[in-house]
Structures are given as C-alpha cells and as structure tokens.
Specification:
This protein has 22 helices and 27 strands. The protein starts with a strand and ends in an 8-residue tail after the last strand. The relative contact order is 0.06. Bound molecules: S-adenosyl-L-homocysteine. S-adenosyl-L-homocysteine is lined by residues 9-10, 35, 79-82, 85-87, 110-111, 114-115, 162-163, 189, 191-194, 219-221.
Length: 633
C-alpha cells in the first residue's frame, strides 16, 4: 500500500494526526527533500528505509514503491503542504494503477494556509473578496492560456501564487496588465511556519523590488488582493532587524530601531550558568544590546529577567537565528553546536554565536567571528569577565588585518566574498595590499601591517566607494552603507512617478549604489509634497527638511539661481540640502577635518558634494557624501 501524505507547510507539528501515524507505521518513506521538513522523519520507526525524491526520477520513485509493495510493506510518499496542490501525485498514481498497486491520499495543511496564518489573514473577507484563485506563473510546466495570470487578474479577487518567486517582475506586470491597480496590497511569505519564516507586505508594483531586496527567490508564496489591507503582521520591510537594500539610516530619531537591530539571546542550563547569563546580559545591555535570557533554571532574584526554556533547544535556536544578531550559550560548546547545526548557513548572514563556560574561564566565538561580530563580542566579554577569548580565525591569531571584520565594523557592504577571501589569504602569506577610499577616510597612521594606502585606484585591491562596482572590477569593492544623501528640489505637485524616474536615472547615471543611499533631503517648503513623501516611503529612505535660512547659511560655490532664491529663499535647494544632511549625519570632529582648518558647519559641508545639481523636468538633484573616519583595530 502506498500512502500519499501531506507533510504540511514546514513546522513538524502541522502534519495531521493521521499523517503522523502513517509515518510511524511506514517501512519505506519517500519524501520531497527540497521542501519537506526532515524533522518529520524522526517519527519513523527504526529500520525504516528513507529516500529523498529530490534526487530521484519518477521511474526511480515508482521502482521503490513497486519493490515495497512486493514485500507487502507500507510505503509513505511524503509531499509538502497538501499533496493535491502542485504535488505531481497524479503521474505517480497513474503508474501505480497500471501496476495494480493500491494507494490512498492523506491530506495536509497547504503552505497557502501556513502563509495565511503567518499573516493572520482571512482570504475571504466579506465585502472585499469571496474568491481565492490559486495559480502560478508558467515555468517548465506550461499554464493553459485561458488561465494566464493576466486573464485571472481581471477578477481582482484574492490570489495565491505558488512557484512564482523567481519571476516576480513578469508576475507583477501580468497582474497589473490584467486589471489589479498597481497599488493593490501584496505579500510575500517565505518558508511559512519554518523557524526562518519571513513575511513582507508590499504592493503589486514593488513586489519584484521587495523580493530582490530581501533575496527571496524560492520557497515563497505571493498573495495579492485587498484582503491584505491592514493584515495583522507588521511588515518585515519596516523591521529594522531585517536588512533591506533601501533600509533607512539609523539617525537619532531612529535610535529605538537601532536598539532592536542589536537583539541578543542567551541560554543557560544550570543555576550557576543562569546567574552568569544574567550578568552577561546586564553588561551587554550597557553596551547597547537588547538581551533576553532563557533558562531551565530560575536565576538570581532581582537580576535580569529569565524566560523559562520550555521548547527543545533546537527549536529555540531556530527561532533565535531568525530574530537575533547574537546567541550566547552559557555551558558546554557541544550543546551549542548540536542546537545550531541545522540553521548554520552563511558566514555573511548567520548571527554571532558564542559559548561561555559556566565558570567564565573561556569565551568561544563559535560562528560568524568576522562579519557577524562574534570575535569582537568575545573580546569585549572576555575583558569584562576576566576570561580568555578563544579565537581561532587565522587573521586574528596571527594579528593580521581581516577585510571582512573591517567592513563589518565600519558599515561597509562586502560585495564579493571570493575576493575578500583571497585578500585575507594573501595577507596571511605576507603580501602587501593596496587600499583606496574617499579623501580623508583612511588615516595613514592607522593603517595596519601590510595595508598600504594608494592614490591610483588601479593599484588598489580594496576599493571603498559609494559607486556601484563595475562588472570587470578587479578590486574588492566595499560600499559605505547609508552614506550618500540625495538633495532634491521639485515643482509643486510633481508626481511620485516623475520623481522616482528622475531619482532612478540620477542614481544610475552616476553609478550611485542604492546601498550607499541614506536618504533624501530638501527644503521645509516641500514637507507636504506628496510625491516626495511617497518616494521616500516606497524606497524606505530617510527624509530631511531644512529651513531656507539653514540652507542659505552654507558658504561655498553652490550652483546659484536667482529664480529659486525668489521662490524659496535660498539660491539652491538640492546641493545645499544634500550637503547639510550629509554633514549632519557624518562624523565631524576628526583630526583629518580639523587639519584643514575648517571648523564651521558652513565651511565643511560644501566639501561633501559629490554630484552637482542636475535638472530635468522641473526636478533638481544633487548628492553629497557623509564623512567617515574608517577604523582599523
Ligand atoms: N503541495 C504544496 C505546494 C508544492 S509546490 C502545498 O500545498 O503547499 C512548491 C511551492 O509551494 C513553492 O514554490 C512555494 O511557492 C510553495 N511553498 C511550499 N512550502 C512553502 C512554505 N512553507 N512557505 C511558502 N511557500 C511554500
């Protein structure tokens, strides 16, 4: 007998009771390895034969089923979600039928319901839509023309799209072409019900951008329709712990957000360990972290709050991988390694993971030592506890410059990990490396061993620049995140579309990398300008407005316009606003600037201009770069 069983969307406890029993009884299980949570297989009995269909053809699957049947075994074919939705079960059933092998289906919770749960969404909201269309974009499997997205979109009902995350642009175009207004709410739900679940609320017209910025290309559903209006979840696009390409700058008014991005989770398993964890949390909070402590024990009265550790440690670790920047285990490193093992993916995105032994003798940065900051945190914690930091990364043990740490500590986006690795290897081998950056950002006296500043960009192996890297760039480009301010002026009533096009064109023609952009700056007169506000909102950019006198107060050779002065009270909006915003958000008191004998805001700000005023269709744009003094350890 073959049972087609729905495994549910991901969380192992979202399988049906019947499905679970079938897994327990199975002699043979064939599971869809690309999407089914392997944790479900733990319920299989000892000696159960397990096959991953991700590596099998239909013929091989049928051969396994046939062999099982010949031995009178129970065979479970485990499909993600519900088997009836894009499960390719019919072709298997046809083959079984031909061979006279009996089969039965056991339903499951489809990912479309997992996704609705993640959003607290009702698909069929009275007065909004009473129909759900389930479809997909055509891929290798064609979709009949009369069911094209464009045709289905005419109904403007709720729509759930499977298997389409890799084709967002085409999808959005079809949805809009078919009848949905571009601003119709949309959602992307990635890995619904898995620990790494992510949800993004957006609009149809920025679906593609949202997916791109958050690197969503698969295992996601797209939901569109007005039922999403006011959907329960806060959009992760606005969640500061989640980095998007256009994330807003963390300036003073966003301090609260910044704190959230510094989430740390601590776990401990003994009474002593819990007290130590409480102490570590108190210390880390002084350093700007936001800490939560979990434990199987109570901890010290009056100390940091302790949350009871009730779920399995792996479940805990999975959740913390998704919501924390740092995990600190107080206890044995083996416990930590086992807990985090399934979630370890990438040294550029994994959180910092540290282990502190119960007697506070050693602090071990286990994971993400460089970009994730585990080494830095281990050194700080060791200083605080009087412990030894147990560092194992080659550049650290040999006291050499590590470009990935340097990038992480200075807010520079590392654009190419292969080049970064090669640079670290060359430095370890004793080779000298040229570095180049914006004027005044690198202090000669700070440069570490083997790092040499070079003026000719050609000779540089590390190039710090706000420009988008060229295709054939040889150097490793490090992009200073959120450092370029775009000054913008426009006629009253300029549309969002016109502003966006001009903004886009401006970035492209000057190769300004979107990751380098901090925000938009303008004159207070434009505070209510709808198009401008909409553009900032859409791109998640900070907005700064200045009074005419503040702008006029800057001295320097800005482009002058008598007409603009008459209208606004300053001779130039975009250049001055960009410079003022850049000056205010950048560092100012460095020796490099003082040595130029420029002490006032008025003088310093003008030197920050990197692109002079450009004008098109009543929109003026300019760009300025906030100053930073890069730190080497
Ligand atoms: N039978 C499955 C769908 C299989 S097709 C079900 O009922 O859910 C595979 C597609 O399902 C993926 O490309 C993705 O669009 C979607 N999918 C599967 N699991 C998902 C999950 N946990 N979260 C979001 N989408 C998921």
């Amino acid at each position: 007998m073959v049972y087609f069983v729905g495994a549910g969307p991901g969380a192992p406890d979202l399988i049906t009771v019947r499905g679970q029993r079938l897994i327990e009884q199975a002699d043979v299980i064939i599971y869809a390895g690309s999407l089914v949570n392997p944790e479900l297989l733990q319920a299989a009995k000892a000696g159960c034969q397990i096959h991953n269909s991700a590596f099998m053809t239909l013929e091989e699957v049928i051969a396994v089923m046939t062999a099982a049947e010949q031995e009178n075994k129970v065979c479970v074919r485990l499909h993600t979600g519900d088997p009836s939705i894009y499960g390719a079960i019919r072709e298997q059933m046809d083959e079984l039928q031909k061979r006279g092998i009996p089969y039965e289906s056991c339903p499951g919770v489809s990912s479309m319901f997992g996704a609705a749960a993640a959003l607290n969404l009702e698909y069929t909201l009275p007065g909004v839509s009473q129909t759900v269309i389930i479809s997909r974009t055509a891929g290798r499997t064609p979709v009949p023309e009369r069911e094209s997205i464009r045709q289905l979109a005419a109904h403007q009902s709720t729509m759930v799209l499977f298997l389409s995350a890799g084709q967002m642009e085409a999808l959005a175009e079809e949805l809009i072409g078919g009848g949905y207004p571009p601003e119709t709410p949309a959602a992307i739900v990635y890995k619904a019900s898995w620990p790494e679940e992510k949800t993004f609320l957006c609009r149809i017209d920025n679906l593609a951008e949202t997916a791109r910025a958050n690197k969503i290309t698969k295992t996601a559903l797209v939901i569109v329709g007005n039922v999403l209006q006011g959907a329960g979840q806060r959009s992760k696009l606005y969640d500061p712990t989640f980095s998007t390409e256009f994330r807003a700058a963390a300036e003073p008014e966003q301090q609260a957000d910044k704190m959230m991005s510094q989430n740390a989770a601590l776990a401990s398993f003994t009474q002593e360990g819990t007290q130590l964890a409480q102490g570590i949390a108190d210390y880390m909070e002084q350093e700007g972290w936001d800490c939560r402590v979990w434990s199987t024990h109570k901890g010290r009265e009056g100390g940091h709050e302790v949350i009871p550790l009730q779920v399995g440690l792996q479940d805990w670790a999975g959740k913390r991988f998704a919501d924390s920047r740092a995990l600190v285990f107080v206890g044995a490193s083996g416990i930590a390694v086992r807990a985090i093992a399934p979630f370890v993916k990438d040294k550029l995105t994994d959180p910092a993971v540290l282990v502190v032994d119960e007697a506070a003798k050693h602090v071990i940065p286990l994971l993400s030592g460089h970009v994730g900051g585990a080494n830095r945190l281990a050194k700080d914690l060791s200083d605080h506890l009087g412990a030894d930091p147990v560092l194992t990364t080659a550049t650290d043990v040999r006291g050499r410059f590590a470009v990935d740490t340097f990038a992480a500590e200075n807010g520079l986006v590392l654009t190419d990990r292969v080049k970064a690795k090669k640079i670290s290897a060359d430095i370890l081998a004793g080779q000298e490396i040229g570095i180049s950056g914006p004027e005044g950002w690198l202090g000669k006296e700070d440069l570490p061993h083997l790092i040499r500043q070079t003026e000719e960009a050609d000779a540089a192996r590390i190039l710090i620049d706000w420009r988008q890297p060229q295709e054939n760039e040889k150097a490793l480009c490090l992009i200073p995140e959120k450092s370029v301010w775009i000054g913008i002026g426009c006629k009253k009533g300029t549309s969002e579309k016109a502003l966006e096009e001009a903004f886009e064109e401006f970035l492209q023609s000057h190769r300004i990398d979107p990751r380098a952009v901090a925000g938009l700056a303008s004159i207070s007169l434009k505070k209510e300008e709808k198009g401008l506000l909409a553009l900032a909102e859409k791109r998640q950019l900070s907005l700064r407005f200045y009074e005419a006198e503040q702008l006029e107060g800057l001295a320097g050779d800005f482009s002058e316009s008598a007409f603009v002065r008459e209208q606004t009270g300053t001779s130039n909006v975009c250049e001055r606003a960009a410079c003022l915003a850049a000056w205010r958000s950048g560092e100012r008191d460095s020796a490099a600037w003082r040595s130029r004998e420029q002490d006032s805001e008025a003088r310093e700000a003008r030197d920050l201009l990197i692109v002079k005023k450009e004008k098109a269709d009543g929109i003026t744009l300019a760009a300025a770069l906030a100053y930073r003094r890069l730190k080497f350890e």
